[in-house]
Specification:
- The chain is an alpha+beta fold and 276 residues long.
- It is 39% helix and 25% strand.
- The protein has eight helices and 14 strands.
């Protein structure tokens, strides 16, 4: 479902809770370990023409018992069976073939798990979201240039929305797709950190508009508010991981073949994170 009025209400309550310390979860169902598929969809921005595919794929786990939150990136070119489509292809094609549900089904089979929810973010909307929170600070792991912007390795830089989109996109001169996924995780953490601060109340209207226009999810209102209330202080402690493999050509098309040992470790780690 598209987030509309219900998301606006949640975000308003969440921002107000920053100013009024209360036990938001007192009247809510106790949270259980959960998993969320984060998808960033192509929009054709920066000259790209792969509109409709999920350029970003991450699995987030949240465990209220251990108070741990993890993010695991999946390379967009990973060669997998697209569940419900009857073919093997790049994992990011699942979204183009069948939207969030086919993406979830495909990741579920690949990681031998059962995802609880999904969140889809329009990648072009990153500009609006980052600007809405007043920009973010990033520390590039490598130096590179893209569309007139220069990023220097190890140099913490405050960037706006346009810069953030470029920072999330580049992969040809900055360390390839794995380095790009590292930067994408950094952006997600930085945005979450800014939204979780008291300063966000002053940008409330901009934040609500940006989220409403660029985010789609099946998370319900109560769960969103619970997550915000219980984990906003732990954003800086999110543990990040990267599925990796080997690039190869199959019938003239480039794919990323996941390393079997790393895949097995990833499956076991996610299972452990979701254990009650």
């Amino acid at each position: 479902m598209k987030i509309k009025i219900q998301y606006l209400v949640v975000a308003l309550l969440a921002c107000l809770s920053l100013l009024t310390p209360v036990n938001v979860s007192a009247n809510m169902t106790e949270l259980k370990p959960m998993s969320i598929l984060l998808l960033g969809t192509d929009t054709g921005a920066l000259g790209r023409d792969e509109i409709g595919r999920s350029d970003v794929l991450m699995v987030m786990t949240v465990n209220p018992t251990t108070e741990r939150v993890t993010l695991t990136s999946i390379p967009r070119d990973t060669y997998v069976e697209i569940v419900g489509h009857g073919t093997k292809d790049k994992i990011n094609h699942a979204y183009a073939f069948g939207g969030p549900q086919m993406s979830m089904d495909t990741v579920n089979q690949f990681f031998q798990m059962k995802l609880d929810y999904y969140i889809v973010v329009n990648m072009k909307g990153i500009e609006q979201i980052v600007d809405a929170v007043g920009g973010i600070d990033v520390t590039p792991p490598t130096s590179f240039e893209i569309t007139g912007f220069t990023f220097n390795a190890g140099e913490t830089t405050h960037i706006n929305g346009e810069q953030a989109l470029a920072y999330a996109r580049e992969r040809y001169t900055s360390g390839g797709d794995y380095a790009r996924q590292e930067r994408q995780r950094e952006i997600i953490q930085a945005v979450m950190s800014k939204v979780s601060t008291a300063d966000s109340i002053f940008n409330l209207q901009e934040i609500l508009t940006a989220m409403n226009q660029n985010v789609q999810t099946d998370l319900n209102m109560v769960t969103i508010l619970q997550l915000f209330s219980e984990y906003r202080d732990k954003v800086g402690e999110i543990e990040t991981h990267q599925l990796s493999g080997t690039g190869t050509m199959i019938d003239g098309v480039y794919y990323d073949l996941a390393d079997e040992s790393i895949l097995s470790e990833t499956i076991q780690r996610i299972a452990n994170e979701l254990a009650e």
